[in-house]
């Protein structure tokens, strides 16, 4: 208690001795008032505010950290720490977040965790239009959102395991969300929607369809509240809702709450590309009689996306161009998911087309868990079809289609039994030379820039296995 008092000598008339003493008394009073205010803010969790830095050089660095973090590749032995860790340190110098800032920085420096926020927000340079700040218009001060971010990062760092740390963040996030959902005015915000989406992404990875539907149902209610109250949401959070809904449906089989036509920000038409791009590749054109009409139209749009991918791109990422590609891809994947009543052979082609749409134009999409998941589904479907005597894709006239399906599926399969399963089938049915395989692949959906490296690596594995 002694530190709370400052003793100052005074004269008999009650005045402070000199100007120095008066300054000392005033300084002490101000300091103690600030301390009391800070403690009160900490108790009420209002001690973190977003501020605008006046230093132009610092502002530039922070903008760079948010808008254009350094990209990374899977093959890099020691990828650099993302600039989000620097951002956290700059905005939280007094450890005022609802989570441990040092742990946040450590998780952001973990390579396995870097894709965790996808698709809610992105740290990839080519997806800078989906940066944290553009999606949420805020910093990390929202306790529900930051705990959900920590949950997603810790879950990915743990290899997809819901350990004690993850459960702690999940519990904290849900506690804050429950309190907030008591008031429509507090609940109707990007931060609340984003927090729920991140939790939904984790339970989707675990395959818990019922829990995904519970969380996405809450998101649907919040969207309705925002619409009723005329709350303007950012295009980024609308994209986050669409992609998390779609990805969760792919991973866990949950019911979808939105489509590619729900949000105006995602609307896409064929007018965005030259008309000549919209045609079936030669390998599908000669089999058009086997394809459902709606499926054929989607494949034409996918071929147009392939043509866009094959156009030489500048080194500097064009955000507007990536937005168009994102909308184009959203339309393709959403319609592929909605297709029903396809034959078993067409279902194999649908899964391969979905895999191509994920990996054609954006490197980070090919590094997410979804391509490997679709790859495993395709392998299971191909094995099922192989046992069906009426399945046309295993007949000799369709051997080129089978080669494409096996190589596209196997190229993005993770090391282990799934990839080994593809190698086994390729050794038995498609062990030609690389030039033969390459020519065959180019008859269907194909891009050297997107597929050449992983497909050729798989071909080498097949050759090694064949020669043993």
Topology of helices and strands:
Layout: H1 19-44, H2 56-67, H3 84-91, H4 101-108, H5 132-136, H6 143-157, H7 164-180, H8 184-187, H9 190-205, H10 209-228, H11 235-252, H12 282-285, H13 293-310, H14 319-338, H15 344-359, H16 363-366, H17 369-386, H18 399-411, H19 417-429, H20 434-441, H21 448-467
Helix pairs in contact: 3-4, 6-7, 6-9, 7-9, 9-10, 9-11, 10-11, 11-14, 13-14, 13-15, 14-15, 15-17, 17-18, 18-19, 18-21, 19-21
Structure description:
The structure is a single chain. The chain has 21 helices and no strands. The radius of gyration is 27 Å and the shape is elongated. Helix 13 runs parallel beside helix 15 and helix 18 crosses helix 21. The chain is an all-alpha fold and 468 residues long. This is Transcription factor domain-containing protein.
Give a quick summary of the entry:
This protein has 468 residues and is mainly α. It has 21 helices and no strands.
Write down how many β-strands occur, each being a DSSP E stretch of 2 or more residues: 0
The average pLDDT is 83
Structural class: mainly alpha
Task: Return the domain count.
Answer: 4
How many individual helices?
21
Radius of gyration: 27 Å
Q: How far do the termini sit from each other?
A: 81 Å
Strand content: under 5%
Which parts are unreliable, with pLDDT below 50 for 5 consecutive residues or more? 48-94
What is the H/E order? HHHHHHHHHHHHHHHHHHHHH
Largest sheet: none
DSSP helix fraction:
55-70%
Taken from the alpha-carbon principal axes, the silhouette is: elongated
Protein name: Transcription factor domain-containing protein
